[in-house]
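subagent[fold] <- orchestrator: predict structure for attached chain, return tokens only, no commentary.
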Amino acid sequence: MSDRDEEREFDIKWADGAEHKEPSARARMLAARWKENPPGPVPFRGDSDHVGSRRRSSWVSTVVVLGCVAAVIVLLGYINFRVP
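subagent[fold] -> orchestrator:
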């Protein structure tokens, strides 16, 4: 690596020490959108209607995963039992 390449290398400490940091494109877009139409208040916990369905789906997925693990264990035990 030549000296010239080392001079051009990006220095993260230099970038973090910048006095002015430009906001991201998403932050600029939301700021422009909210200037014209500010968002309404949002409850901290959100809607309670969706919580029950989410809990059921997590239980279903847990049962499916544990069932698959049990099936693999039984299958491996059966294979080891049959092979002398």
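orchestrator: received. Logging for downstream: Residues 55-84 form one domain. The chain has a mean pLDDT of 79.
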